[in-house]
Amino acid sequence: MSAVAAVQANHFEAWQQVISNAFVPLQASATRQGRFRARIRSNHIGAMHLSEISAAPHRVSRTSKLIRSADAGQLKVSLQVRGNAVVCQDGRETVLAPGDFALYDTGRPYTLSFDESFRSVVLMFPRELLRLRPNDLADLRARRFDGQRGTGRLVRSLVQELCVREDAAGSRSGLLICDAVLDVLSAAVEEGVEPAALRGDLLGRLRSFVEQHLSDPELGPETIAAENHISVRYLHKLFSADGVPVSGWIRARRLERCRRDLADPELAELPVSAIAGRWGLPNAAHFSKLFKATFGVSPREYRSAHLGG
């Protein structure tokens, strides 16, 4: 690649200028005290702008004010190579691990947060080059795509091929690979479009995950979010939109499983504390209080009433 720019620790403001020149006007802020180092390698291949970024932890924002001053009408795809990133746009947050990529729009506010040193590859190109049906883009912004399997893996492989091709900008093969990236990317996002049911399907998968792990006393928002590749904030937003906080939903499902087992004759010899423990509630006194507050009677009273003493 060409057009290499490097910024050292005492030039953080210069880094903001460098990435604004490379992409679109952006705000950058440090998330840690101390030295800051970053490096970007950029190239233009046809209508596509390709950049490799290695940097220390920081945060990048595209604000409404910056958009009003200059909307370039571009889409960006960020492929995570090393470290994790959090992408946020239109109220959706997603965590990118190495191999993942996400799509976002320079015409709408977004943030990228990096809590550790990272390396990523960013593609930027005009919106019209990605063949999308009307309104599909709204369902795709800040979505996580898995670059380890399926069509996503083809996207990752082609992008990595462009990165190692020193002659990509001036060669016909480079332009053909660039076209292939856009074609395969279009296929990947087409597979990922779930317009009306997107949030509902994700919420259903999250609830299914909770049901399968109710016996784990450590089950909580952080575990659920990490295992499903979303941020904790987005997890809370999904559950809150449905009217029940995630912790409340976990608690309710555990209590319902306990209530069912307490009324099961085949489990009559199992102590109440053991039933609570098998559903992730090891503190017997706390379980008893929760059960009575929910069902109006203590666990022992409930069992007695349903098993005839």
Automatic annotation (TrEMBL):
Signal peptide residues on this chain, from the entry's feature table: none
Limits of the HTH araC/xylS-type domain: 204-305
Keywords associated with the record: DNA-binding, Transcription, Transcription regulation
UniProt cross-references to Pfam families, sorted A to Z: AraC_binding_2, HTH_18
GO molecular function: DNA-binding transcription factor activity; sequence-specific DNA binding
InterPro entries: AraC-bd_2, AraC_XylS_family_regulators, Homeodomain-like_sf, HTH_AraC, Tscrpt_reg_AraC-type_HTH
Name of the protein in question: AraC-type DNA-binding protein
Species of provenance: Saccharopolyspora kobensis
Lineage: Bacteria, Bacillati, Actinomycetota, Actinomycetes, Pseudonocardiales
